[in-house]
Hints:
The chain is 51% helix and 5% strand. By secondary structure, the protein is mainly alpha-helical.
Amino acid sequence: xxxxxxxxxxxxxxxxxxxxxxxxxxxxxxxxxxxxxxxxxxxxxxxxxxxxxxxxxxxxxxxxxxxxxxxxxxxxxxxxxxxxxxxxxxxxxxxxxxxxxxxxxxxxxxxxxxxxxxxxxxxxxxxxxxxxxxxxxxxxxxxxxxxxxxxxxxxxxxxxxxxxxxxxxxxxxxxxxxxxxxxxxxxxxxxxxxxxxxxxxxxxxxxxxxxxxxxxxxxxxxxxxxxxxxxxxxxxxxxxxxxxxxxxxxxxxxxxxxxxxxxxxxxxxxxxxxxxxxxxxxxxxxxxxxxxxxxxxxxxxxxxxxxxxxxxxxxxxxxxxxxxxxxxxxxxxxxxxxxxxxxxxxxxxxxxxxxxx
Length: 357
Ligand SMILES: [Zn+2]
């Protein structure tokens, strides 16, 4: 007996409408509707086609119903421009991540979260509070993903090819989750991760769908990545684009994020702020005209997960490479690998000691 909820998960994951899905399976739309309503089982040939095009194993479709992230509790930026199918695809990725995460939880202990809750503090105060709680002082953050993982946040990657989806986050059974679109620049992903951290810290109880939630999360992200005191100590008055490109590396942020923060703390006049913004766009356009697909000048390398790398090294040594884990869960390797920063396919094995003669 097939579980319609499982079939729906896969349909959503591939961003298909019911009629697109019916086409892919070679049946008419009514067959899908009747199947989803539980009136009718899918013909065997149809299930074969489903497994073939999706890569999911047959058994996947008869497992118990999956747990989807509740879309009402998840805040998507630019919701207006994000299509329902792209949103559903990202939510379906979350459902797969939960299944993998629960499987890992049976095998490995991971740190419990130690996030502060700041329902009433201002975003910059909430950021300072969390930095203090984590004993970070004013130091710049070397690797945001690793920092979040060390504090018990489960971070997954999304490889959604849409510029309208940056990231999303949620609480599940007292565990914080962040899903990051890793097709953005490294600087942008770091900012997005801190934006989601802001939602987790400030909006756990009141939700993140109120009108000011997005601005609050952005303000949190800026203050968390670039503590104002450190910005003041490390920058000078009236910085130009060239200065910003050099200086942004300290905090691992984009030029535009640094420009905005400097303006907000009064280090840049209105005129300089706008001038830098225009100069940045001109600079990027020149690079693009030369055929360089660049969204950020002198971008840094993308961040990946340390925890997943560590776990997969261990699984590998236990004879459980990605292919076997995927098989245990009846999912295609690619779906898992996409959620795990692409590191699961080829875990970095420790170098063998080399001896020179
Ligand atoms: Zn948000």
